[in-house]
Specification:
Strands 3-4-5 form a three-stranded parallel sheet, covered by helices on one side. Strand 4, helix 8 and strand 5 form a beta-alpha-beta unit. The chain has 205 residues and is mostly helical. Helix 1 runs antiparallel to helix 2. The chain is built from eight helices and five strands. The mean pLDDT is 89.
Length: 205
């Protein structure tokens, strides 16, 4: 198929598809591949979608016009908040995430999203953590950042928070120790909520 979609229409299609909860990432990609234009997608019924993805879809509430309206609202809000929307086929989409069984069709990012394709290490742990556990998490984040690895974790209190703090401390220490800060890893927080709803509030800064 010859792709004649412009960037704005492609973005709208990506957000529109991402909001269809009854489709897997693979099925969304299949639909996107076979779409000529946004209008065609919006006019598709559940039966049309089933034929495209070759899977029976149980009767479900499907309001394509409302999905389109909300997709436009999302894009407008993201532009106001300087939020970048990365699609599954974007070069900055993390390759390891892309290889999982059912990765997110789009990612909503704030900050330097190019970090997503750099060397990284992931850390998750308990919210209730001992003093030794706090120290270990902080040290791990610090050492990883010094070694040039980005630290990826949630933003919960406990291990997640301390590993981020360690990586941040390494960044500031690099100035005092005369280390090139460009070689220091950064932190990447994966949020369970919308990107404008930072929780817990004490980690907002």
């Amino acid at each position: 198929m010859h792709n004649t979609l412009n960037n704005d229409e492609t973005l709208l299609i990506n957000v529109f598809l991402s909001r269809i909860q009854f489709l897997s990432c693979k099925e969304k990609n299949l639909l996107k591949k076979n779409i000529d234009n946004l209008s065609k997608l919006v006019l598709m019924s559940i039966e049309d979608i089933s034929l495209q993805i070759q899977r029976y879809i149980k009767k479900t509430n499907w309001d394509s016009q409302e999905n389109l309206r909300m997709s436009k609202v999302v894009i407008h809000y993201c532009k106001l908040m300087n939020i970048t929307i990365l699609s599954y086929d974007d070069i900055n989409y993390p390759e390891l995430l892309r290889q999982t069984d059912n990765p997110p069709f789009v990612l909503y990012c704030r900050g330097d999203y190019s970090l997503l394709v750099n060397k990284s290490v992931s850390v998750v742990g308990s919210r209730r953590v001992s003093f030794a556990g706090r120290k270990a998490a902080f040290s791990f984040g610090y050492d990883a950042a010094i070694d040039g690895c980005n630290v990826v974790s949630g933003l919960a209190n406990g291990v997640d928070g301390f590993v981020h703090q360690g990586a941040i401390e390494a960044y500031f220490d690099s100035y005092e120790k005369g280390i090139d800060s460009k070689k220091i890893g950064r932190t990447i927080a994966v949020l369970p909520s919308s990107i404008d709803d930072i929780s817990p509030i004490n980690h907002k800064k």
